[in-house]
Amino acid sequence: MQSPANRAGPGIGDKSALGIVRHSTHIAAMFASSAPTDVIRVTALAKRFGEVVAVDGVSFVVPQGETVALLGGNGAGKTTTLSMLLGLLLPSEGSIEVLGEDMLRHRYRVLHRINFSSPYVEMPRRLTPYENLSVYGRLYGLVHVRARIEEIAEELQLIPFMNRPTGSLSAGQRSRIALAKALLNRPELLLLDELTASLDPDTADWVRSYLERYRTRTGATILLASHNMGEVERLCSDVLMMKSGRIVDRGSPAELVARYGRRTLEEVFLDIARRPDEVAAQ
Amino acid sequence: MTTASSEREVLVRREPSAFSVRRVTAMVLRYLYLLRGSWPRVAELVYWPTVQMILWGLISRFFMTHSSYVAQAGGILIAGVLLWDILFRSQLGVAVSFLEEVWARNLGQLFVTPLRPYELMLSLAAMSLVRTLVGIVPAALLCIPLYHYSIFTMGLPLIAFFVNLMAFGWAMGLMVSGCILRYGLGAESLAWLAIFALAPISGVYYPISILPGWIQPLAWALPASYVFEGMRAIMLEHEFRADLLLQALSLNALYLAAGGVVFLAFFRAVRRRGLLLQMGE
């Protein structure tokens, strides 16, 4: 079965024997066939910092209810892409549509329907988790802030440390607080950047299970930036492989493994990562 | 299956409006939590105005026996100090609350919520008011038993002075916060230094007329100068100068607009450069 990310097919042109994607210049036309249920539609997105090209004309869609991974090494452009999706970073070129809204013009129409978590931002450390979640609950316009906090605290097993300063908690506990913040408004779209990077295997496994349940229960869409292959194979129906700011391949984990003749996604990742940039640029 | 959308409709009050008092109060609540959880922060608010008041009270007491100028109106220096501190606290209140977000690496989280930049600006101004009152009121009250001078005897004009100095402080605070947003913690010291650069030409302790002629136009471009001249008119001539008040208000409208524009312009520049996620210690 063709994977959802491939269904729209933007940016996929000819594939070389090595599975390298050549980007089409007729991306907008290709989007014409995409279904209206796409939660994210990115077209020819680029970001340049002076001479440095951080993201180089990427295009993709994320259908509703899917968990899709942005997979790539350090500096591949994952966080930059997520930042542009959130509106924290203005693109140099391209367009972004989230939940049917143009994020460059109308991001405030959808920000209450999405949320994100990233190790690059923190919750204020001097405030307790309860205080932090109270502030964010109000910012997201929740009706019954206290009730929602109590609910999410119970679900994520945060109750024992809800009234301790956030800065005094372990990295794992803080990650769960960050996840609670990310789920506070029951987002239809969840953007997660290296979600389990600071977690021990047990806690990471618990968090992944929780996310799987959340997605199944609510039909939420998740875009996950990661370089944890196990996490991606477990959670994601589709993978967008990034390298040097480009999407160099895409497909379900199984499709990618089969296409590259490898046994695991990690081997596929290494295959792509160790290939010279010039080859990827073709 | 329940969808995230239907669950959220029950959970969320309404579609976000362009301005929300609730979001502003959420940010005020965030800063109050911070203040409540840190007694050194509260102590610091009270400490400096009180120390300033004591120091200048003593200097004032000395001059009252040696200077005919000051002798005309006991407390003129103390009033200058207290009013100057309103301006300083107001500016610092905006900048430090903003710095709290930078130190906490929280800006990235805030700006993916429906919070608008101008709502953040309003919450910073509201917190500046709280911080200023916490700092100034105890010092002003302490002044009464110590030096037998009450700044409250100025009456209603004191409110006009307070409003103008707060507004000018907010404008300066927004400009400083914009610089911190754009240039990072390298510009942190501006929060404490910027306003002091204006002190010598604001006529806090002496009339603008004694400044060198070439610098007087600069002084009259500052709303604070009109406030301090107005203060002297009340204390020395027992006259309320409405013209000075109006000029201060007009200038403040311009400065506040400029402060907002500078902050928003730097906010956009930061979004272009991708600094919101990187900002921090």
SSE blueprint:
The complex is a heterodimer of chains A (282) and B (281).
Chain A: H1 4-8, H2 27-31, E1 38-49, E2 52-63, E3 67-71, H3 78-86, E4 93-98, E5 101-102, H4 103-106, E6 114-117, H5 129-139, H6 145-155, H7 171-183, E7 189-193, H8 201-218, E8 221-226, H9 229-235, E9 238-243, E10 246-251, H10 253-260, H11 265-273, H12 277-280
Parallel strand pairs in A: 3-8, 3-9, 6-7, 7-8
Antiparallel strand pairs in A: 1-2, 1-4, 4-5, 9-10
Helix pairs in contact in A: 5-6, 10-11
Chain B: H1 4-11, H2 21-36, H3 39-64, H4 68-71, H5 76-103, H6 107-110, H7 117-147, H8 156-183, H9 190-193, H10 216-219, H11 223-237, H12 242-273
CATH A-level architecture of the largest domain in chain A: 3-Layer(aba) Sandwich
SSE arrangement of chain B, N to C: HHHHHHHHHHHH
Which term fits the overall shape of chain B?
Answer: elongated
Largest sheet of chain B: none
- Total of helices of chain A: 12
Average pLDDT, all residues of chain B: 86
Distance between the termini of chain A: 27 Å
Q: Can you characterise this structure?
A:
The complex is a heterodimer of chains A (282) and B (281). Chain A has 282 residues and is α/β, with parallel strands linked by helices. Chain A has two domains: 1-99 and 190-207 and 223-282, Rossmann fold; 122-187, no CATH class. Chain A is built from twelve helices and ten strands. Chain A has a six-stranded mixed beta sheet, with helices on both faces. Chain A has a four-stranded antiparallel beta sheet with strand order 2-1-4-5. In chain A, strand 4 (93-98) and strand 5 (101-102) form a beta hairpin. The two termini of chain A are 27 Å apart. In chain A, 52% of the residues are buried. Chain B is elongated and about 80 Å long. Chain B has twelve helices and no strands. In chain B, helix 2 (21-36) packs across helix 7 (117-147). The mean pLDDT of chain B is 86. Chains A and B meet through helix 3, strand 6, helix 5 and helix 8 of A and helix 1, helix 2, helix 6 and helix 12 of B.
